[in-house]
Write a structure and sequence with these properties.
By secondary structure, this protein is of the alpha/beta class. 34% of the residues lie in helices and 22% in strands. The protein has a 6-stranded mixed sheet with strand order 2-3-1-4-5-6, with helices on both faces. Helix 6 packs antiparallel against helix 8. The longest helix is centred in the C-terminal third of the chain and has 18 residues.
């Protein structure tokens, strides 16, 4: 029997949702970092195998919005609960259920009985079994989860068990996407995200949150296996522009080198990447600029 369905993964920021999904796909298709607001868009990631197909919906971390970008991100997360077969809430093995996790629990409580609800406790590789059991117990007391799965998205430990439980709950269904398709997003979107990830990784304080990346052009050369990609990194302040360029252009060069490596892995061929930096003052507070950079809800 071929099974298929849609599975959303929700949680507060930085619990490892994107890391888990990259692990399941076996390839980097969504970016990760230790910064809040890393994932901004709702992204479909497609896992296909002989027994079926799971369309995972990766979402921004659920938190109170502070600007127009934040409003868009919250809308993306909440809309991911529509038309879903299974809901996975992801948490860390904290000593108590925090305020943000509690808010998410209350949002999904009403789905009990209509959708299978899974709890994934991530990052258990940093604990021993005696430390994990109390965390399982705290969430079991909520009496809303059909399955509680401790795992490590980083090491892949127990990820196969999660997949088995998902397939157990899915019903017979069609193949929604070709088997070799890993995401519903165009290559330009994934490439822009890979560039933004490097800024998140190497820049500190407020600068990373105000980054946006636009692919100006992307052309494959006819005479050899090489892509020419021209992209602009936008920041919100003039001072941030200097930081991202760095002394003698060193920071921008570092971001470009690291991004190019990931883009070449994605495309399977060499890349000539040209990066530019421009200022779009306080773009996260301006609805038209938020939409311009692609943060716009589906109609």
């Amino acid at each position: 029997m071929y099974k298929s369905g849609f599975v959303t993964v929700i949680g507060r920021p930085n619990v490892g949702k994107s890391t888990l999904l990259n692990s399941i796909l076996g390839q980097k298709m969504t970016i990760t970092s230790n910064k809040a607001q890393t994932t901004r868009n709702k992204i479909s990631l497609i896992h296909s195998e002989d027994r079926g197909q799971i369309v995972f919906i990766d979402t921004p971390g659920i938190q109170k919005p502070r600007n127009e970008l934040g409003k868009f991100m919250l809308g993306e997360s909440l809309s991911s609960l529509e038309g879903i077969d299974i809901v996975i809430m992801m948490v860390e093995p904290d000593e108590k259920i925090g305020k943000k996790d509690r808010n998410i629990l209350e949002r999904i409580r009403g789905l009990k009985g209509t959708h299978p609800l899974f709890l994934v406790i991530n990052k258990v590789d940093s604990l021993n079994k005696d430390q994990v059991l109390p965390v399982i117990g705290r969430y079991a007391e909520e009496e809303i989860f059909d399955e509680i799965i401790p795992l490590s998205a980083r090491t892949g430990d127990n990820v196969d068990r999660l997949l088995d439980l998902i397939y157990d709950r899915l019903e017979e269904g069609p193949k929604y996407y070709p088997e070799d398709m890993l995401t519903d997003q165009p290559e330009r979107f994934v490439i822009a995200e890979l560039i933004r990830e490097k800024g998140l990784s190497y820049l500190q304080e407020e600068v990373p949150h105000g980054l946006a990346v636009e692919i100006n052009s992307m052309k494959e050369r006819q005479d050899k296996a090489l892509y020419d990609i021209d992209a602009t990194i936008y920041v919100e302040r003039d001072s941030h522009k200097g930081i991202i360029i760095g002394k003698g252009g060193a920071m921008l060069k570092r971001i470009g080198m690291e991004a190019r490596r990931d883009i070449e892995n994605l495309l399977g061929q060499k890349v000539n990447l040209q990066l530019w930096v421009k200022v779009s003052k306080n773009w996260r507070d301006k609805d038209e600029r938020v939409k311009h950079f692609g943060y716009q809800a589906e109609s």
